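Record SH3b domain-containing protein, 125 aa.
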Amino acid sequence: MRARHALMVTVAGAALVAGGLAAPAAQAAASGTSAVTCGNAYWPHTNKDSGSGKVTKSGSAAVHTGPYGACTTVGYVSQDTTVQYDCYSVNDYGNRWTWIRDANGSSLGWIYGAYLDDGGATARC
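=>
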């Protein structure tokens, strides 16, 4: 009986945690911002923007798994490197991030729009 009670408490706690994790994405979608979160480095999408731009951040700019600075960094792009744009997303803080590809067309991830010479992609993801 105690084991079953402990299991039920654990399952209920996990449901509450899972519900808490899902809330930001739901709030983001309702407010018109992006529902894209960290961990979506290879999320399926189409290339909606044929544009490109140069990285302007001094030294290099971090590329992330999601459109947030707190998301895992997957690499860096050096200043003055030209990158290809797929689309942009606006995060919960109102910051615009662009999904980028390298010159060979390989997906890299999300970069903060302020680090791009023209602010990034013009087509929303």
